[in-house]
Design brief:
The chain is built from 5 helices and 12 strands. By secondary structure, the chain is α+β, with helices and mostly antiparallel strands.
Amino acid sequence: MLPSLERSYPRGNYSVPRIHLLEVRQRTAPDQGLAWILVEIEEKRSDIEGVTHDAALRLKCQPVSPTYPHPYKSFEFTAGYWKMFNIVKLTGLDIGGGAVFVDPDELCGHRIGTYLMDFIVHWARQWPEATVEPIKLQADQGKGEAGQRRNRFYEQFGLRFDYTSSEKLAGKSVPMPAGELVQSRAWEQNITVHELPSVLERQFAEAKEATEELRYLKKHSGELGAELQSAYLKPLRWALRHGRGSLFIVGILALIAAIASRQFINYF
């Protein structure tokens, strides 16, 4: 198997390939499909004598379902670690700033971000003594349902915030060691992780079955068309060829035609 398709990235009690596929269903209706998203994991490390001095993680996401046809813009979640500063960052590749976004807006609120951040948290916990760089929440992003969803999103991973007001519009996360972060498996309620080869194999099998069924239908529709044309052009011969039941049908049709013809003549 290609290296990028092997299960090489551990996530608790299971592993995922570097490139894998997410089947996303609607959060409020898990039986209804929403989107398919291709995820690529990109990790870079600087190791000296077996010790990681800095690391960067990038989770690239590309919607690939018919709802979001190719080429559709992608989005990504990123994280970083720096031994020199003993810091791990959950929302970017540089110290200071940073944010996470799911794009387009129609995909927000369906636990895609939870899946990605859960991966980042598992990755960050490799350095349990490192301090999680504080995350700043902006007031202009904290209004209404979107703000409540934002706050719940971060808090489910064990982050605690000092909010500037009771409305929790803005705030800053309290410094904490990465070892105290918690993973969230809430995404399992409506997201399924698939390996690319198995999905492609299933799609090819379904396409082959559909092609064979279409070929069968075309063949039999052609045969039926020829049969109907024969019955129309030479009804008596067609009826004789198909037995007494067909003769009866032809007789009834002929009687109906005769009655209709007489009524037509009498009308004029």
